[in-house]
Amino acid sequence: MKKILFISFSCCILFSLIAKAQRIETLLEKNWKFTKGEVAEAMKPEFDDRKRETVTVPHDWAIFGPFERSNDLQEVAVTQNFEKKASVKTGRTGGLPYVGIGWYRTTFDVPADQQTTLVFDGAMSEARVYVNGQEACFWPFGYNSFHCDVTGLLNKDGKNNTLAVRLENKPQSSRWYPGAGLYRNVRVVSTDKVHVPVWGTQLTTPHVSDEYASVRLLTTIANDEGKDIRIVTEIISPDGKVVATKDNTRKINHGQPFEQNFLVNAPCLWSPETPYLYKAVSKVYADGKQTDEYTTRFGIRSIGIIADKGFFLNGKHRKFQGVCNHHDLGPLGAAINVAALRRQLTLLKDMGCDAIRTAHNMPAPELVQLCDEMGFMMMVEPFDEWDIAKCENGYHRYFNEWAERDMVNMLHQFRNNPCVVMWSIGNEVPTQCSPVGYKVASFLQDICHREDPTRPVTCGMDQVSCVLKNGFAAMIDVPGFNYRAHRYLEAYELLPQNIVLGSETSSTVSSRGVYKFPVEKRGDVKYDDHQSSGYDLEHCSWSNVPDEDFALADDYDWTIGQFVWTGFDYLGEPSPYDTDAWPSHSSLFGIIDLASLPKDRYYLYRSLWNKNVNTLHVLPHWTWPGREGENTPVFVYTNYPTAELFVNGKSYGKQHKLTAEESKAIQGKDALALQRRYRLMWMDVPYEPGEVKVIAYDASGKIAEEKVVRTAGKPHHLEVVADRSQLTADGKDLAYITVRVVDKDGNLCPSDSRLVNFTVKGAGHYRAAANGDATSLDLFHLPKMPAFSGQLTAIVQAAEQAGEIVFEAKAKGVKSGKLTLYSSK
Ligand code: GAL
């Protein structure tokens, strides 16, 4: 990764840094002026923006709402979901005002006579970039990083350059909430004329073993003009030691990269469990003078795919235990925040998840860096649409002209990240059924192979009959299927690759803390409250419940794992409440809800995926006034093989997880035969208030753990728990505070929905809150939110000054909750 210097624009600091390093990277974060709507001449330096709103970038203009049914109302037939007739889709893009034009303006200084490039990590969308009144570049795709050389447009002394960016989101341009504005970072990179351009290195590890690894570094140099170039590169180990050095001088022919090779003995291999990172630090010299220093962060690891056998990392067989995620951060919208991403990954890690698919777009670079550091494999995917439309104003408008440029940027930006183990070229593109669709697929796959020969390519395919027949699936390195679990075996047998990836699986729908009766496995079921049942047995017409995917992974070597739809709930796509079902406006697919609170399903995955901890989770809650005597099934998600259930001391017997054979033997007789392999279920339990106790037994039959769930009494106080108490005073760090309405003994009041108000004092401020209710129209940024199923999350942001931050949650009828966080530099 490149060196980033966070500096103020004070001249003395700027120029004293120059003396030491020729490369300066500056984030443009504060004091942007923002205007929603078209503004004539806003690109001009003399445009008076003093009265415009001041914002900090990353900024998502639409997340502040309000939610409206009329925002981007789409009348469409979603053909992927088998719809034949157009119908009104409400909340498809989150019901938020992302459509329209927005202008951002700021100024920046650079040293005179430096080479200067602007790098945008993503700008939503159709970005027109102006420097000092002149158009510097245009980049239509809102999710991709792009850069433009603005050297020729700068003021002579390098000072007070006006940067203006015009963004435009068309209606009907997305199937989910895309966010709006400069929602990712913008930086100014200023270098000597002879320098390493943006994403200018390519580092591979052609040989990897426990004894040694070879490291090959290709460095592109701009403006070498036939000079003798010297590059001194040190390879730095994860513990900071120089483990290899090369000092080479040579003339490089125009356009050719400068090659250096290294041996690293006894390398620390990168894996999700051991995310070791190395650095290659290269000093570049021209005419005897150092002109650049560039750092490439990397990992040493090998990936392999063997037909009939599956996926191998560092020679070890493993299956992806992955999730798909959209890019939004729930109540923060699309505006990128590292602490929020880290929070997501921390929860997923504890679940045992080891892989992320960036559905269906290029990720923020911060996410990829965190996956390198925290240990997640990534499938990076650029497109939801190729040349044939899914959305009237979707990417298909730009595909022919821009696809290669978009691919190249993505590949160059992320090809040195060890976490990226696979590229996906698209998701459920209608092109898959076109007779010439294979040509488009091969065009994109070839770009991947050309720019990065080290990683396999997949594509999320959903039209199984088409792609098996028309040759499309046979030509993709790794055939990836979205859902259609019942066709995996057929695909495995027909396709030459003899492996199958679950590129998108499950799409089970549930609402945290909501349970519906009777408890049945059902597709496309809808309720008056627009929620789905927390028993994890409901899915859409095209999808399934998790157990089917678990069985495919367990029963066949050649299934190389799965990416569950989705890790987190996201804004938009409120299936099954997507057709004229306002106010539903966010998804129910997440294993974790929009407030970052795990649903029950989290523990089902954890019980199978996280082998380092024990899981014993009981559902539903046990506070059902009015259900006395009614059948209220109890499910237990656990890694233990056996458990016994007691209600108020009365045993309901032991249940054990069935083997594959035992489960097959009862198929047809028991609708939940497959579930009995992965869940312990007591289907006939009359509700009586009191205590549910589950005692779990290990494989040797010994009591291992017990769990008790009690009927809650009257709401008494708010319990507040922060995910972390020590923050960094950088103006960005976040604490996620869970607020629970509990009785006097601390039992959750599971149906409470009272309004909670927040105050934050001291060295921080209130940032946002969410409750995970997909029908809630409460605005995230206002310091109040009703509880949903008794809980919500409030997010507090540290200021730049260190100190104490006091958070308080208050609600009518219960005692308030208070906690103190600490922030330091
Ligand atoms: C898939 C699609 C995803 C999402 C999901 C919902 O078909 O690839 O983007 O729409 O369905 O189940």
**What is the strand tally?**
48
Uncertain runs with pLDDT below 50, 5 residues or more? 1-21
CATH H level, superfamily name of one domain: Glycosidases
- Main beta sheet, described? 8 strands, parallel, barrel
Q: Looking across the biggest beta sheet, what order are the strands in? A: 23-24-25-26-27-28-29-32
Q: In CATH's first tier, which class of one domain applies?
A: Alpha Beta
Any ligands, ions or cofactors bound here, and which?
beta-D-galactopyranose
Terminal residue distance: 23 Å
For this structure, the quaternary state is single chain
The tally of helices reads 11
Task: Give a quick summary of the entry.
This protein is mainly beta and 825 residues long. A hairpin with a 2-residue loop joins strand 18 (278-286) and strand 19. Residues 80, 359-360, 427-428, 462, 482, 504, 507, 540, 543, 565, 573 line the site of beta-D-galactopyranose (GAL).
Can you describe what's shown?
This protein is mainly beta and 825 residues long. Among the domains are: 6-60 and 97-191, Jelly Rolls (Sandwich); 201-298, Immunoglobulin-like (Sandwich); 322-507 and 542-570, TIM Barrel; 717-824, Sandwich (Immunoglobulin-like), CATH 2.60.40.10. The strands form twelve sheets. An eight-stranded parallel beta barrel has the order 23-24-25-26-27-28-29-32, surrounded by four helices. A six-stranded antiparallel β-sheet has the order 3-2-6-11-8-9, with no helix packed on it. A hairpin with a 5-residue loop joins strand 15 and strand 16 (242-251). It is globular, with a radius of gyration of 27 Å. Mean pLDDT is 95; it is low at 1-21. The structure holds beta-D-galactopyranose (GAL). Beta-D-galactopyranose (GAL) binds at residues 80, 359-360, 427-428, 462, 482, 504, 507, 540, 543, 565, 573. This is Beta-galactosidase. One of its GO terms (molecular function) is hydrolase activity, hydrolyzing O-glycosyl compounds. Residues 204-301 form the Glycoside hydrolase family 2 immunoglobulin-like beta-sandwich domain.
